[in-house]
Structure formats: structure tokens, C-alpha cells
Design goal:
two-stranded antiparallel ribbon; 422 residues; two-stranded antiparallel sheet; 68% helix; mainly alpha; globular; 3% strand
Length: 422
């Protein structure tokens, strides 16, 4: 029964991740989102029921997240915001479920569940929407509309940049981890497919965030990486320079088209006034009330239908919903976790690139969060993954050795203690 419960937990989690990748508007969206949350809670329940959950004290980050969610729920309850109160309660339940999942003895396999869910999503996109995908990837332009941005399974192009840009990092991590050629080839194929979704969606924020993560990784490896990794960087850089030199005209033309640089609303001449105006309005709202500046307004109280405009930044969104104090603590938790992963992943004489890649995944979402509001969220595959990853990385000290063939991206030092559950 224990093995069956563990497998059920994995299947429920995989189903939850898969459902969060569907974003068609209308009742179907609400059904898929609620179904995903229900499956996630079931995954946590069966993980606890399996008897493989270790009795480990909550980490500081878990306490901080729980306190922030509880405080936001109480603020919403006091102000009479029933919907926000329900969202706060939901996030507390999700946090509990994820806490059980990351304490399971098989928690190192969670990353594999996420990758297979991504494989299922890419497979579904290829089966149902490949003509639209490839048309947008080639730079389809419609008169009066401009560039046709691809929306995988109904997902907004900006969110697609987060989800599939992050997916590319997940599979590149697998490419580095495995020694089997077939697995390396499959992982790299998935990296390319995820990047193709990113390009087809013209998700420029996702591209910038990937560039930020890439530059961070290159800089740190150049400074602290092994000799072999530095040589690899030099070779890749030389190949990249050669390709750009010989294909510079074609590359420039394609990027100008796919990035929509000539658009009057999204192009260079627009001056980015739309997003900066939104940010200015959001910051003014944050400081408009001295009490709410500290308490926040409650989870999901900064939605466009509530405040009248979209908040296109996780940092402004956190300040509005959680207040400056808890909002800053939440951001600090992600920043410190990323720094620890990057630092410990490149310890002198003991390089662990799986852990290093985990840090870059956090850098990616932190950079992406400047332009989007999904840093704290469970309604899309990558935000859910970041929540799982952050809790895992803070559950204990990192192992000094990393098994090569296992899916151990964070390898937490979990002691053999009493189990929780049946």
C-alpha cells in the first residue's frame, strides 16, 4: 500500500501540473484551475498516507510563507473580502501539501514529475495546435493586427514566456545531469521545443529573463567553474560568434520580426510607456494608504477587475497584496535561496551543476517577475515548480555528494528520522 500511495501521489501531482498548463478562457479555465488545486492537495495527502514522509521541522521559509499567507487572509477577512480570504486559505492548504511532498523519501523524483508533465504539455501542443505554433514561429503578421503571438493552450503570451522559458531550464538541467546519450538528446530536444514556444509567443520578458539567468551562469562559471566548464564556455562562445557573423543579416531580420520591434505599441518607438505607466499607477496605489502600506490588501486583491488595471510586476503586486513588510520578506526568501544554491553549486573543488541550475531557475523567475506577477502562484506549472524548489532547497543543508543518475536537483541533507503517516 505504501508504494501504491506514493505512486498515486506522483500521478496526482503530474495531473495537477498538466492542468495548470491549460488556459482557455471561460468555465473551462476555472474548472482546470480548481481541478489542478484539488489534485495537488490529493498528492500531498497520499504522500503523507504513504508513510514515507520524514518528520522534519518546518524551515524558516515555510514559517515565513505560512505567516504571510495567514496574515493576508486575516486582513482580507477583517476588510470583508471573502474571495481574498478564500485565496489565502487555499494557499495555506497548498503550502501544507507541498510541505508533505518535499519531505517524502522520494522527493528527489519530484523534478522528474514536473518534466514529464512538461513533455505531456508539449505533446498536446504539437497534437492540437502545431499549425498555429509553427505559423507564429515563422513570424506570422496579420493586417490591422500586427504580429500574431502564439498562445499555447490558451495561455497568455507573457505567461508562456515564464512557463516555457522555465521549462527550457528544467530540461537543460537534465541534459547536464545525465550521461546517457539518448537522454541527453531527448532533454536537448525538449529545450529547443520550449524555446520555440517562447519565440512563437514573442515573450520578450521571458527572453530577457533567460538572458539574465544565462549571463549570471556564464559569469559565475567563468569566475569559479572548473577548467572543463570554462573550456566548454569558450567553445560555445566561439561557435555562437561564428554563427552570428555568417548569418547576421538573417538573424537580425528574424529577431526584428519575432520581437515585434517595429510595432507602434510594442516596438522601439513606443518607449515602453504602457508598462511604465502601469508600474507608476501601481506604486502610487501602494503608497496611497499608510495602513495598507503595512498590512496589504489580501491575496488576489490586486487583480485588474478589483483595482481597475493590471499590475505587471510581482514586486508591486506583493506590496499591494502583502504590504511592504511581508512582501519584502517573500522576495528576500527567493533571493537568499537563489544565492545559496548558486554559491553551494560552485564550491571550490566540488562543483554541483544540478544545484547551480536550480539557483539559475530562481534567478530566471526573479528577473521575469519585474514584468509579470507570478512569483507567488500555483496556477501555472513553473510558479508551482518554484514553490516546490524553494521549499526543498530550504529544508536542510545540501548534500556534499550528488548521485549522478538520480533526479537530485537540490539534494537536501535529510536525516533518517521518524516517518509521518501510516
Amino acid at each position: 500500500m505504501r508504494g501504491l500511495n506514493t505512486q498515486l501521489s506522483r500521478w496526482f501531482l503530474g495531473g495537477s501540473i498538466y492542468l495548470t498548463g491549460w488556459y482557455y478562457e471561460g468555465p473551462a479555465l476555472q474548472a482546470s484551475q480548481m481541478g489542478a488545486i484539488s489534485l495537488l492537495l490529493m498528492a500531498g495527502f497520499f504522500a503523507a498516507l504513504s508513510g514515507g514522509t520524514l518528520r522534519i521541522r518546518p524551515s524558516l521559509v515555510e514559517w515565513m510563507f505560512a505567516t504571510a499567507f495567514l496574515f493576508a487572509m486575516l486582513v482580507a477577512w477583517v476588510t470583508g473580502n471573502v474571495l481574498s480570504t478564500m485565496y489565502g486559505a487555499m494557499l495555506l492548504l497548498v503550502l501544507t501539501a507541498v510541505a508533505f511532498l518535499v519531505r517524502h523519501r522520494g522527493a528527489a523524483e519530484l523534478v522528474a514529475v514536473f518534466r514529464w508533465a512538461y513533455v505531456a504539455l508539449i505533446g498536446t501542443v504539437l497534437a492540437l495546435e502545431s499549425p498555429a505554433w509553427f505559423a507564429s514561429l515563422s513570424g506570422s503578421v496579420e493586417y490591422g493586427l500586427g504580429l500574431v503571438r502564439y498562445q499555447p493552450l490558451g495561455m497568455h503570451p507573457n505567461l508562456s514566456g515564464l512557463v516555457y522559458g522555465g521549462g527550457a531550464l528544467l530540461f537543460f538541467q537534465r541534459y547536464l545531469a545525465t550521461h546517457r546519450r539518448t537522454e541527453k538528446a531527448f532533454a536537448m530536444a525538449m529545450v529547443v521545443l520550449c524555446l520555440c514556444v517562447l519565440l512563437a509567443a514573442s515573450a520578450r520578458a521571458g527572453m530577457l529573463a533567460l538572458a539574465a539567468a544565462g549571463l549570471t551562469g556564464i559569469s559565475l562559471i567563468a569566475l569559479r567553474g572548473s577548467r572543463r566548464s570554462r573550456v566548454s564556455l569558450v567553445l560555445v562562445a566561439l561557435i555562437g560568434v561564428m554563427v552570428i557573423f555568417f548569418k547576421r543579416a538573417d538573424i537580425k531580420e528574424y529577431l526584428s520580426l519575432i520581437l515585434d520591434l517595429d510595432s507602434p505599441t510594442r516596438g522601439v518607438d513606443s518607449g515602453a510607456t504602457g508598462r511604465t505607466d502601469i508600474w507608476r499607477a501601481g506604486i502610487e496605489l501602494v503608497f496611497s494608504d499608510a495602513v495598507l502600506l503595512f498590512t496589504g490588501r489580501g491575496i488576489r486583491s490586486a487583480l485588474p477587475e478589483v483595482i481597475g488595471f493590471p499590475v505587471e510586476s510581482s514586486y508591486i503586486n506583493l506590496a499591494l497584496e502583502h504590504g511592504l513588510f511581508f512582501g519584502s520578506l517573500i522576495v528576500l526568501a527567493f533571493v537568499v535561496t537563489a544565492w545559496r544554491a548558486l554559491q553551494q553549486g560552485l564550491q571550490p573543488g566540488q562543483h554541483r551543476y544540478q544545484l547551480f541550475m536550480a539557483g539559475l531557475m530562481l534567478v530566471f523567475i526573479l528577473a521575469q517577475s519585474i514584468f509579470n506577477r507570478y512569483l507567488i502562484g500555483v496556477g501555472n506549472p513553473y510558479s508551482l515548480w518554484i514553490l516546490v524548489l524553494t521549499l526543498q532547497l530550504n529544508l536542510g543543508r545540501v548534500h556534499r555528494t550528488l548521485p549522478v543518475r538520480r533526479e537530485t536537483f537540490s539534494s537536501l541533507n535529510i536525516p533518517r528520522t521518524t516517518r509521518i503517516g501510516a
